[in-house]
Amino acid sequence: MQGLQKPVGSAPTGSFTTTCLRSVHFGPDSIEKLPSILKDITRDSTNDTLPKVLIITGKSLAASPVIPHIEELLRKHNAFAGTFTKMRQHSPIEDIEAALGVMSEEGASVLLAVGGGSSIDACKTISYFNRERNGAFIQHIAVPTTLSAAEFTQIAGHTSKEGKKTVVSAEEICPKAIILDPKIALHTPQKLWLSTGIRALDHACETLYRPGGQYPLQQLALSAIRDLFTYLPQCVDKEGQDVEARGRLQVAAWMSLFPSRLETALGPSHALGHGLGATYSIPHGVCSVLTLPNTVRAMARTLPAASPERAMLANAFSYLPTSYVRDHMSLQSGEGDEEENACLVVAAALDTLIDRLGLQTALSEYKVPKEDLEKLAKEAYATTSGKPGWKEICPSPEQLLKRVLEPIF
Q1: Measured between alpha carbons, how far is 192 from 144 in angstroms, rounded to an integer?
Q2: Which of 167, 174, 245, 325 shows the smallest number of beta carbons within 10 Å?
Q3: Considering the entire predicted model, what is its pTM?
Q4: Pick from 60, 63, 109, 61: which is nearest to 82 by CA?
Q5: Hey, what's the torsion of the CAs at 235, 328, 316, 358, to 10 degrees?
Q6: DSSP class of residue 92?
Q7: Full set of structural domains in the chain with CATH
Q8: What b/e sequence results for 94-127 when a residue is b if at least 16 CB atoms lie within 10 Å of its CB, and e otherwise?
Q9: CA 83 → CA 55, 71, 86, 284, distances in Å?
Q10: What pLDDT, in 10s, does the model give residues 39-59?
């Protein structure tokens, strides 16, 4: 199957609509561009006064050198309004409301998310709520410290008072600028960094078999799969101090979920993760560690033969480093056809990568009751199959239960 990669269908056709993201700045020390980025997004080249910025982050980053450095950078340009350090995992609505209050009290007109998906989704949600209440979206900049890629979407999730994942969406809530600085990422705890790398793989894999998937985005996703498999282990080998590897992984996360107006659900792995994360306080990256390999196996068996979705997933085989292919030679000549076997190798390679990164876990470790699995499967199916094109290819609730959830309990 070494020559498996092939074009899917005839010449690519389609339409692509980007978001309101204006710029992405990447590489070591790119955080130093923050003042000029602020000037750019406010579109005022005649006034040297920068807007007042409220930083949104969590407690762990606030205790690192990252936040004090950014605060000082803003103070030098009289642009610092304050720092909200109480944003918790999965962006609880109580924290969103508290941050809105601080923003108003401090007179901030721009938000700066520094952290993972929770801080970034919080800024998007704050922007959305401000439009509902005060008539205007709030501009914000994202400085991600994980690989979850939340900064590249127009969708934001937060947790309701009842503990349910709640989603808001609007093109205007996207960050206006993104800063990918691998030196800042060195302060991210190793397990969090690596697990969100699997989250990026989740984006990439589900982009491949998403119905109506855009061919250019799928090609970027394939390249992301190659780089994530290559550079995540390097972060382990060098104990998290490899700036080059972290920088390449940040770009890979960007490619895994390239900015676009998503019109269909990414897939069942994400739907299962949303249910698990908000309900049982499982981190985003760990949700993907749990659900992605088995979801890829389930998709390999349920995607119709000769469908563009299965062909694209099979193409990921050709982007795996040779060591992962060699580890699973027996699957290449399995009972299925060539494409199905290639998809199964991708799933097995994900298991191997998770093992090499030391991320193995189980639902039981997060106190998920076994009797809840059926409900989780049904909710994930309803979420996914209700989107355009998914009903025909999404694994059934029974398949999600038997093939994805029960094996990881």
Answers
A1: 12
A2: 167
A3: 0.92
A4: 109
A5: -30
A6: B
A7: 23-185 (3.40.50.1970), 190-408 (1.20.1090.10)
A8: ebbeebbebbeeeebebbbbbbbbbbbbbbbbbb
A9: 5, 8, 9, 24
A10: 998 865 456 789 999 999 999
Distance of alpha carbon 203 from alpha carbon 386, whole angstroms: 19
**pLDDT at position 3 over 50:** no
Q: How far is CA 220 from CA 144, 270, 364, 399, in A?
A: 20, 19, 35, 29
pLDDT top residue among 403 and 323: 403
**pLDDT tens-digit readout, 142-177:** 999 999 999 999 888 888 888 888 889 898 999 999
The answer to whether 173 touches 127, Cβ cutoff 8 Å, is: yes
**How do 53-56 and 110-115 pair as beta strands?**
parallel
Q: Which two tokens stand for residue 78?
A: 């009289």
Is the distance from CB of 106 to CB of 79 less than 8 angstroms? no
pLDDT tens-digit map of 221-266: 999 999 999 999 999 988 768 999 999 999 999 999 998 776 566 8
Structure tokens at 364: 């039981």
Identity of the amino acid at 381: Y
Amino acid at position 145, single letter: T
Give the three-state DSSP class for 252.
helix
* Nearest 10 degrees: Cα torsion 106, 122, 219, 303: -170
193: nearest Cα among 152, 268, 247, 140 = 247
Q: What is the pLDDT of residues 123-133, one digit of tens each?
A: 999 999 999 99
Q: How many CB atoms lie within 10 A of CB 330?
A: 10
Taking alpha carbons only, the member of 130, 250, 110 closest to residue 186 is: 250
